[in-house]
Amino acid sequence: MTLKHTVKTRRFIEENHDACTLCGKEFQNHDRTHLGYTKSQKLIYVGDCCSENLKETIIRHSYQNRPYEIPSKETVLWRFMDFTKFVSLLSSQSLFFTRADRFEDPFEGAKGIKKNKTKWNKYYLEFFEQSYKNPPDGVDFNKSDSEIRKEAKRLLKQLDEGGKSDLKLTFINCWHENPFESEAMWKLYTKNMSEGIAIQTTYDKLYRALNRNPSISIGSINYIDYSNRFEGINESFWFKRRSFEHEKEVRAIYKNFKADSKFGIPMNVNIKTLINKLYVSPTAQDWFIDVLKDTLEKHKLKKKIHRSSIFVEPFH
Ligand SMILES: [Zn+2]
Fold it and tell me: What is the arithmetic mean of pLDDT over 28-42?
């Protein structure tokens, strides 16, 4: 038996993130959690409540709530795209995760608004100073006040630099949550609507199509007013300004600290699992649907093409 922390064991934590797998007790922030094996080699992720059942431990964590909500399994998600992007998806069998600083929104990954930066600086300087002044039991930093002040400034600088480099190490793939089709999204996300395509999937299908990858987090965006708040260091990619609320975005985030990619990273995806339904836009012409049918056949993809019903004509 190996005690390595593998994709399988990391996935086990992600899929049992919030509660003890033996007694079901929900974890609270800062609870100690343990991943390991029982005597009978069953993999468990438990709190101190059940840690006596561990024969061997792989890793211990301090529990933290996720900074985002995971949608329910059946939540309907849409991705609108032009035909060329769709063809690229099929032939590469991958979803493109865009590097965070390549999005147009300058608030992508932002911690707050510039005007409030001095408040942020003050908060973290105090936080670092207090951490030095009140070390954990048994630790003595043995530093003078001025040394602590200097060290806190250094850590703040590191934090600022980290925020900027994070933008180049974070990769995002966006979806629109909606039980129905949305006319606005056709217009927003396709350059030429009559040659646009929409993939409809669900949260669960997207998760499985990405191979239940424990390095990819999928969750809903929170829309907030930045004027009177900050986002934490690990949370900023789950927040956007209120003016984006109509996007009802669910995003998949992949962080790779070794990434060296200018625009983004293609992540393997199982297309058959991913596509629940395929829609062409309300203004699609017959020739376009024929081309699409040929393309699906070429990739041995048996999916029915639905014509959008948004623009069906009314009578008065
Ligand atoms: Zn327990």
Answer: 96
Chain centroid, CA 272 distance in Å? 22
Angle between helices 286-298 and 83-92 (to 10 degrees): 10
Ligand 1 centroid from CA 13, angstroms? 14
Residues with CB under 5 A from ligand 1 (ion): 20, 22-23, 25, 46, 49-50
Cα–ligand 1 centroid distance for 110 (angstroms): 37
**Quick one: pLDDT at residue 312?**
62
- The residues facing 294 across adjacent strands are none
CA of 222: how far to CAs of 134, 149, 219, 247, 257, in Å?
Answer: 34, 35, 10, 11, 24
Q: No. of H helices and E strands in the chain?
A: 8, 14
Q: Contact, 196 vs 280, CB < 8 A?
A: yes
> What is the 60 CA–ligand 1 centroid distance (Å)?
14
Rounded distance between C-alpha atoms, residue 106 and residue 116, angstroms: 16
For strand 43-47 and strand 32-37, is the pairing parallel, antiparallel, or unpaired? antiparallel
Asked if the model's pLDDT at residue 2 lies above 80, the reply is no
- CA–centroid distance, residue 48 to ligand 1 (Å): 7
pLDDT at residue 96 is higher than 80 = yes
pLDDT of res. 311: 63
Q: What's the gap in Å between 54 CA and the centre of ligand 1?
A: 11
Question: 260-284: b or e for each residue (b if 16 or more CB lie within 10 Å)?
Answer: eeeebbbbebebebbbeebbbbbbb
pLDDT, position 276: 96
Residue 50's nearest CA partner among 36, 29, 62 is 36
**Mean pLDDT value across residues 37-65:** 96
In angstroms, what is the span from residue 29 Cα to ligand 1's centroid?
15
For residues 217-235, average pLDDT: 89
Top mean-pLDDT range of 129-133, 199-203, 256-260: 199-203
